[in-house]
Task: inverse folding
């Protein structure tokens, strides 16, 4: 196989990598906020449950979580994660059970990491900012959305971008439950004694991470007009 | 009838009783200075007046209308508490400007939010909005920062930030403006500009409560001085009584100490 043939071949896998990355982000960023609210609520039972949950998810290897999501529902409850066909803007997207399992594991795992980043960001805002809003007669909602949120976003942008970049590379783990992403495909070639494509996959990741880095730099610059 | 009547305010944090029965009144247009050593409860008292802390007992009334009553407080709705607290404004020691808004927006943010909650027609809203911006510009003029309207807090000196904070508090036209050591976070050469603004406000008949360590300022600007010690008002009176003829030994000891430190 020549260079272009290999590139096109790997591109198929890279599409899966990108889709897994994108869907994970779309679901885990907001889910992280919900988990974050859970770990910060004044209602103790929920707070403790959420904290233990975050501890477990952050405490065991992501690879193990992939296995758990893929096998355990079937073993314990006889539930099979289904193959799905989803309509997105008129195109049908086939989502295999394996892909869906990987997605669920990634979303939960990353949401927990994001929730801790959010929590750190929210707690780092000084009490004076809330109190200044309060004495000006603002409601809790107004204070959060008009005063606190933007400062939190500015502070969490660097750690979030770190996580996002880690996620790009973590998607490669999905191949342990046979999701055919780019490295899985390259391994197929390697088993036919064509080794170099395996290393060539690195270029795809590098390009992707490069673009993300530029994007985050852009966001950081946009928020650099104020100090907090 | 006095503008402000405070009676029997008590506040504990856990087992420590920080305010042990505070009573005083204030006339419209008067400036009250509160002095006292560290930990005597001055900040806690201001925070109670601004509803940042809820007193355990006592009442606060403005123009004869009770705006706080510890025994009824729990039954109040949040909207009532919010509108009651607007009788007071508070200027913090550490300014607490909103960093992501420029100076003008810092001042207009809260008035705009209030406007949005009103049921005005589009035209009325537009008119009020222009009013809000005009008022903000006049306030900026008053504190001498007209040319900084578009600057962000991080581009201002501490003294300038504190003057913006004063304008921001005034934008909601509180009946009483409170200051918690407005100059303690400032370099000595910047305190003058802030104190000058407060002095100007006095001449425009603004009623103020100023917690301060600036004894000269308290002596020259106040109509009334309260000396606090251990959570009670140890002594109160006009500046002459307190500074030239203090009756309480605690007041005398405190004043002697603050003279030494100069
Ligand atoms: N939220 C709180 N929880 C527990 N204790 C508190 C709290 N706020 C204040 N205190 C205590 O109450 C006492 C009075 O505090 P306060 O800040 O009112 O004093 P202050 O007169 O303003 O002192 P300073 O001149 O140092 O500002 C202090 O002993 C302080 O430790
Ligand atoms: Mg204090």
Result:
């Amino acid at each position: 196989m020549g260079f272009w043939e290999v590139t096109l071949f790997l591109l198929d896998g890279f599409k899966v990598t990108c889709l897994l990355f994108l869907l994970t982000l779309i679901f885990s960023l907001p889910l992280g906020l919900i988990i974050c609210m859970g770990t910060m609520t004044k209602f103790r039972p929920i707070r403790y449950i959420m904290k233990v949950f975050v501890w477990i998810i952050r405490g065991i290897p992501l690879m193990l979580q992939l296995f758990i999501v893929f096998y355990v529902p079937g073993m314990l409850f006889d539930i099979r994660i289904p193959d799905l066909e989803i309509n997105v803007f008129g195109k049908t997207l086939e989502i295999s059970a394996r892909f869906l399992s990987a997605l669920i594991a990634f979303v939960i795992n990353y949401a927990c990491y994001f929730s801790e980043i959010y929590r750190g960001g929210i707690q780092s805002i000084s009490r004076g900012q809330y109190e200044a809003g309060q004495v000006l007669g603002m409601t809790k909602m107004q204070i959060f959305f008009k005063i606190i949120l933007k400062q939190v976003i500015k502070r969490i942008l660097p750690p979030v971008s770190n996580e996002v970049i880690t996620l790009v590379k973590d998607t490669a783990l999905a191949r342990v439950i046979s999701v055919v992403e780019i490295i899985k495909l390259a391994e197929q070639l390697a088993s036919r004694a064509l080794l170099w494509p395996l290393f060539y996959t690195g270029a795809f990741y590098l390009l992707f991470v490069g673009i993300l880095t530029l994007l985050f730099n852009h966001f950081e610059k946009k928020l650099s007009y104020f100090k907090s | 009838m006095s503008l402000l009547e405070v009676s029997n305010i008590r506040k504990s944090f856990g087992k420590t009783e920080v305010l042990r029965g505070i009573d005083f009144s204030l006339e419209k247009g008067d400036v009250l200075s509160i002095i006292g050593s560290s930990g005597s409860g001055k900040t806690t008292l201001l925070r109670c007046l601004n509803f940042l802390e809820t007193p355990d007992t006592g009442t606060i009334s403005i123009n004869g209308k009770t705006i706080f009553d510890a025994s009824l407080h729990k039954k109040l709705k949040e909207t009532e508490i919010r509108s009651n607290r607007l009788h007071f404004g508070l200027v913090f020691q550490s300014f607490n400007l909103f960093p992501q808004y420029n100076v003008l927006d810092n001042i207009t943010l809260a008035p705009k939010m209030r406007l949005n909650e009103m049921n005005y027609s589009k035209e009325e809203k537009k008119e009020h909005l222009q009013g809000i911006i005009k008022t903000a510009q006049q306030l900026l003029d008053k504190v001498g920062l007209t040319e900084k309207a578009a600057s962000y807090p991080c581009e201002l000196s501490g003294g300038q930030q504190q003057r913006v904070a004063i304008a921001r508090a005034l934008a909601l036209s509180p009946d009483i403006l409170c200051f918690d050591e407005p100059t303690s976070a400032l370099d000595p050469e910047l305190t003058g500009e802030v104190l000058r603004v407060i002095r100007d406000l006095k001449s425009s008949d603004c009623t103020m409560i100023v917690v301060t360590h600036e004894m000269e300022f308290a002596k020259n600007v106040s109509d009334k001085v309260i000396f606090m010690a251990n959570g009670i008002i140890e002594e109160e009176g006009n500046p002459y009584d307190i500074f030239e003829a203090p009756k309480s030994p605690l007041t005398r000891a405190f004043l002697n100490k603050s003279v030494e430190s100069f």
